[in-house]
Design goal:
alpha/beta, TIM Barrel
Length: 209
């Protein structure tokens, strides 16, 4: 049985942790300019999470969705990335509707643990063991990005490789704090399994948000 979204609002306002115009730093869209909207709230609790500050939605102001859209327009961006936290804890239909009305491309980065809302040009699925993704989102994901902390995560990656479509792009991304240790293992794995690509968090090397 799929988990129910904890609908705090109808999506007319959202708990915004931060908004900024930058470059995508990982996965298939690496290097692309986009306006980032990080939403508060996450109940997955990954031990290596680099955005723990976003977990408690109560620490972040509820912002009117139209105000968010207005700032996207002011930025001049042609694409928006919605991330978190876990953004699908929130109803994102109104946000996406407003963005699509002004021809903004919509991208989401999600664990897939909650039912999908919103209309998306690109879905980056990053499954987490504490809350596996729904079957629905696996079938429509454009990109599968699995964080590799230790060797056991390769098996986890292959599990979801078997659940996404043949067109879905496949990425293995080293957990940042284990980078030096796990990179050699990822390199060996991809050489044996070349359908995968590596994703690096290049924004951290460039010291940009």
């Amino acid at each position: 049985m799929e988990k129910e979204r904890d609908i705090v609002t109808d999506g007319a306002s959202l708990p915004v942790v931060e908004e900024f115009f930058s470059l995508q730093g990982e996965g298939f869209q690496t290097g692309k300019a986009a306006y980032f909207i990080r939403l508060g709230g996450c109940d997955i609790g990954c031990s290596w999470c680099d955005s723990r500050f976003s977990w408690n939605p109560g620490l972040h102001p509820m912002v009117e969705t139209q105000s968010i859209i207005d700032r996207v327009i002011e930025s001049g961006a042609d694409s928006v990335v919605v991330t978190g936290g876990e953004p699908l804890m929130w109803t994102l239909d109104l946000l996406c509707k407003g963005l699509k009305t002004i021809n903004i491309c919509t991208f989401i980065e999600t664990s897939g643990g909650y039912p999908l809302s919103g209309t998306w040009d690109w879905i980056c699925l990053s499954p987490k063991k504490n809350m596996p993704p729904t079957s629905e989102i696996c079938q429509i994901a454009d990109e599968l990005k699995v964080i590799i902390q230790d060797k056991s995560d390769f098996e986890w990656a292959e599990k979801y490789h078997g659940m996404v479509s043949r067109e879905c792009r496949l990425y293995l991304q080293p957990e940042w704090s284990r980078f030096d240790t796990i990179i050699p293992e990822i390199v060996k794995y991809i050489k044996k399994n070349p359908i995968w690509r590596i994703s690096l968090q290049v924004h951290k090397y460039m010291h940009i948000p």
